[in-house]
Amino acid sequence: MTFLDMLRDATTRNDSMLCVGLDPEPSRFPEGMRGDPHRIYDFCAAIVDATADLVCAFKPQIAYFAAHGAEDQLERLMQHMRCNAPHVPVILDAKRGDIGSTAEQYAREAFERYGADAVTLSPFMGWDSVQPYLEYHGKGAFLLCRTSNPGGDDLQAQRLASVPGQPLVYEHIAALAQGPWNKNGQLGLVVGATYPHEIERVRALAPTLPLLIPGVGAQGGDAVATVRAGLRAQGPIIVNSSRAILYAAQGADFAQAARQAAQHTRDTLNAARA
């Protein structure tokens, strides 16, 4: 199955547009694990097991593992997800953006070492920074398009005077991803939930691409506005929530609390479809 096939299957099977982001910070772990980077796998695996029937994707953020020298735990976690939630696609949040042989190695890391189904990328260096990932049949790639951080305006909201129509940078990225760059049919875009009007604009330019939308929950994004701006019959959305689910409780019941938070978010997103 391709990434998009897996996404459609998980979305239907679990009746969900929710992606749980796996951003493990040991200082925020529950009692008994708190402050111990050797328990990253244990914490994340418990979250996965508690929410696997409620999500359309999982999204581990590689920096949270690498910062603690826990890449081996990420490998174990990826294997755990393949064995215990094989129907749920995994998006490796790496935001890589290099070119040439370096990009080839990053693609190898994402798809061969970790076995991810998709990866996040920065398209700042152009087509050369995207193409190596599309050589992997059926694998997905999400390009940063309109991010939710305030500094995103510095580049993404600037006009390109040399491009016909003088689009904003993020509009140009969306058009490229929908059109000439989507060589394997598995490209998607990252658009922050804090800008629902711009989600709608991206959707107009990229009507069929999956949109990965972070920022719901702890970052303040409006779940209802997000769904209404981005979801279309032929255009799926993947709405990510991390901290609001991971750290819903600080005690031994952390996994059950995460499940309850995930279920509430999933149901809120589904209700917005009407």
CATH class: Alpha Beta
Largest sheet: 8 strands, parallel
What topology, given as strand order, has the largest sheet? Answer: 2-1-8-7-6-5-4-3
How much helicity do the residues have?
40-55%
Look at the structure and name the CATH superfamily. Answer: Aldolase class I
Say what oligomer this is: single chain
Could you tell me the number of beta strands? 8
Judged by helices, strands and strand pairing, the structural class is alpha/beta
Going by CATH, the architecture would be Alpha-Beta Barrel
Mean pLDDT: 95
Shape descriptor reads: globular
User: What string gives the helices and strands in order?
Assistant: HEHEHHEHEHEHHEHEHEHH
Estimated radius of gyration: 18 Å
Q: How large is the count of helical segments?
A: 12
Tally of structural domains:
1
CATH topology: TIM Barrel
Question: Poorly predicted ranges (pLDDT <50, ≥5 residues)?
Answer: none
Describe the structure.
With 274 residues, this protein is an alpha/beta fold. It has one domain (3-271): TIM Barrel, CATH 3.20.20. The protein is built from twelve helices and eight strands. The protein has an eight-stranded parallel β-sheet. Helix 9 links the parallel strand 6 and strand 7. Helix 2 runs parallel beside helix 4 (71-84), helix 2 (40-51) crosses helix 12 and helix 9 packs parallel to helix 10. The longest helix has 18 residues, at 254-271. The chain is globular, with a radius of gyration of 18 Å. The mean pLDDT is 95.
